[in-house]
Amino acid sequence: MRPSPRDMMAVSRQNNQSILSATSCIILASSSVALLLWGTLQRRARRKAFELASLAHRLVKEGSLVDCSDVHVRAKILYAAVDRATRFWFPSSDSRPSPLKSQVGGLSDHKRRVLTADPDFCLKPLHVDERGFREIAFYESLRLAHHNESSLAKRLQIEHGDLPALDELAFACDSNRSQKHSNSNLRLTSCMWDDFAMQLFVQDEVVQGLDSNTRNAWGELRDEVDLLRRLSSFTPDYYGIIGQPTSTSYEITSESYLLLGNLTVNFKKPCVMDLKMGRKTYERDAHYTKKERECLKYEQQAEFGFRIVGMRFYDPAHVDADEEGFVFLDKHFGRSLASTDEVVDAFRTFFKTRNTPENEQRLAEALENNKSVFEINELKKQWRICKDEYRTEIITDLIEQLQCIQTWFEDNDRYCFRSSSLLFVYEGDMSQVNRDVSVVKMIDFTHVQRRKAIDEGYLHGVHNVLSMFEKLIRDEDS
């Protein structure tokens, strides 16, 4: 019996309702899955953005440049420095390192001497504690910024934007890379999902805020790299560290040395002066006993922004000259200078013109023979006798170099230098053709910290040194 039209319509309505019900269930299930996936991707995007922002913040946070309390960081620092030295240091039994005669700072019975080695190396003893790691890390950062500036951004962008901390960036070693590659497939899959989530939620308010923080940190990092690149021209050449056994992975041994360029190697009679720069020679978080001890060393440090650690100049006629004709004034001399006039007089002593005794005798004989002023001046030129009381050519050249350092510190709003020095060197042998050659370099970087402010203390010291040098020039002209 055929169903009636009414029955067929009823069946059709039931089928449609079943289809609608099933469709609704499917849509509801799909929506739930979509919402769940959407929420998961959103959380993933926000988590990734937070990780990037946190890591970027670590790159530029205030304080020490690297976390030396981490044994892995220490191992990377030592690995990079030891490996660097293997490209430059080839010790020979015929030429052993010997004490640097021109050393004027860091002299003490309980301290190792600075050494010199052929052809032009200076071996500075390393502190075995955190200070040693911090100084190595600073020099490594200088080299990285100066010689690998173009590759720095590429290394920061490895692993799909996974920003490593500065210690991992600058001191990554082969073992670290191999560990990364062992899980490369898993990391690649994870990074693909992270990239997709970040692109999908690029307009998310939370992601945008975190992304802005990351970009700001990147900008600060680029500024730091540029500052370090410029600073490298004011520091000695750095070649790594030596005397560090490979078996001692996490600690600096008492036989380790920084391998630096010898700033005095091109001078026959190098005159050297060491100035400890800054109004304070201790860090902000130093123990109060350390602060008190440093302040008592030289109360005028806060006023002048520097103190004379030591000076050594060539004056064979001086009553206190050694067998090589040099006079040495130590840290106690520097600490005895209580006024600006006394400090200026000390600079006068250091830069005083000292012609050879032979030429002084010849000049005295010429004066006794009633030579004219014109003839005397011609004889001075012929015998290469400096007519100025002070080495004005040297002082003028050092002023120009100091002005470059001053400009850097005026631009520097990232790094704070404590207990760092300026080392001045000039030629003391007046018979040399290149007798007016001089150099000033920044040394000692065990207490460098990142701080987002101008280093007013160091800048104040540089300004005062410049003012005193310029006073010497004015006095000579008058």
Number of domains: 3
| Structural class label | alpha+beta
The number of helices is: 17
Assess the beta-strand content as a share of residues: 5-15%
Could you characterize the architecture of this molecule?
- The strands form three sheets. The chain has a five-stranded antiparallel beta sheet. Strands 9-8-7-11-12 form a five-stranded antiparallel beta sheet.
- It has 478 residues and is an alpha+beta fold.
- The protein is built from 17 helices and 13 strands.
- The longest helix is centred in the N-terminal third of the chain and has 56 residues, at 5-60.
- The radius of gyration is 33 Å and the shape is elongated.
- It has three domains: 58-242, no CATH class; 264-353 and 388-477, Inositol polyphosphate kinase (D-amino Acid Aminotransferase, Chain A, domain 1, 2-Layer Sandwich), CATH 3.30.470.160; 360-385, no CATH class.
- It has helices at residues 5-60, 71-85, 130-147, 149-156, 158-161, 166-170, 174-182, 184-200, 205-231, 288-297, 301-304, 331-335, 340-351, 357-368, 373-382, 392-411, 456-477, and strands at residues 63-64, 98-99, 115-117, 121-125, 238-242, 257-261, 270-277, 306-314, 326-329, 415-417, 421-427, 438-443, 448-450.
- A hairpin with a 3-residue loop joins strand 3 and strand 4 (121-125).
